[in-house]
Specification:
Blueprint (H helix, E strand, L loop, with lengths): L6 E4 L5 H10 L4 E4 L3 H9 L3 E2 L3 H5 L4 E4 L4 H8 L5 H4 L5 E4 L5 H12 L4 E4 L2 E2 L1 H7 L2 E6 L2 H12 L2 E8 L3 H29 L4 H9 L6 H12 L8 H18 L4 H18 L7 H8 L5
Parallel strand pairs: 1-2, 1-4, 2-3, 4-5, 5-6, 8-9
Antiparallel strand pairs: 7-8
Helix pairs in contact: 9-11, 9-12, 9-13, 9-14, 10-11, 12-13
């Protein structure tokens, strides 16, 4: 029998499915729960154990990992008679890898402490590709001892793993990450439209730009999306809209000005209002095209 901790994984979406599968590949026993049967079937095919509820998934777990869309979903799976806090054993380590508000993470850690459950907030960056390739950046908030215990699990999921401070710190850093990514995608999208309207070979232009100071992980990851107008969701506009709300609210609360970020947040909101919320965030290109007179 494996001596590795038993893991309950809650949330098997675009990110959660490949991440849980990487833990299975690393030798962990993973019991998973999500709302979609096909995702549970996928987990079973990968060697995991499907559960019929959150309570069933977590009851025998040493570590519970949540990866759900936003704060309301974290609260839904954590609290209440069928939730994690009422059904996990005292001493369990709860790692929330969702992207939520810092305050939600702080409140969850406080509520869990009353139940003898330890908490880390550990949101990730890298998108679907990073999840599949196990090269995510993982920004963590919580206690050093809990981080040290979780480190081998994180190492099966990502490459850059950093304890950023107390509870909520991981979410604060993730909010900053999403600010940078959104502004970067917007800048790339504007450059693409400018280059195309100028009659330049777009593929050649993006290759040379990505080799210089204008290069970025965003451009590397999203270049083909721009070139092929392929907006299959790796990270949906709907979720980035949620994240831009988190960062603008958090920045307001600490007195930090986000003049560019606030504009990009409105552009993301506009794209979502135009029906593109289910597309990848590289679809910010569509917004720039519309502003430039293109029919999209």
């Amino acid at each position: 029998m494996s001596t590795l901790p038993k893991i309950a994984w809650i949330g098997l979406g675009i990110m959660g499915s490949p991440m849980s599968e990487n833990l299975i590949k690393a030798g962990y026993r993973v019991t998973g729960y999500t709302l979609e049967q096909e995702k549970l079937d996928r987990l079973a095919a990968a060697g995991g154990t499907p559960a019929s509820s959150v309570a069933e998934a977590v009851k025998d777990a040493d570590v519970v990992i949540t990866m759900v869309p936003a704060s309301p979903q974290v609260e839904a799976v954590a609290y209440g008679p069928d939730g994690i806090l009422e059904n996990a054993r005292p001493g369990t380590l709860l790692i929330d890898m969702s992207s939520i508000t810092p305050q939600t993470s702080i409140d969850l850690a406080a509520a869990a402490k009353d139940k003898g459950i330890r908490v880390l907030d550990a949101p990730v960056s890298g998108g679907e590709a990073g999840a599949i390739e196990a090269v995510l950046s993982i920004m963590v908030g919580g206690e050093q001892a809990d981080f040290d215990e979780a480190k081998p699990i994180f190492e099966a999921l990502g490459r850059t793993i950093v304890l950023c401070g107390p509870h909520g710190s991981g979410q604060t850093v993730k909010a900053a990450n999403q600010l940078i990514v959104a502004v970067n995608i917007q800048a790339c999208a504007e450059a693409v439209v400018f280059l195309e309207k100028s009659g330049v070979d777009l593929r050649a232009a993006l290759d040379v730009l990505n080799g210089g100071l204008a290069g970025s992980t965003v451009l590397t990851r999203k270049k083909d999306n721009f070139l092929n107008r392929d907006f299959k969701p790796g990270f949906r506009i709907d979720l980035h809209h949620k994240d831009m709300g988190i960062v603008t609210d958090a920045a307001r609360s600490v007195g930090a000005a986000l003049p560019v970020g606030s504009v990009v947040a409105q552009l993301v909101a506009s794209l979502r209002a135009q029906g593109d919320g289910g597309l990848d965030h590289s679809a910010l290109l569509r917004s720039v095209e519309r502003l430039s007179g293109a029919q999209v």
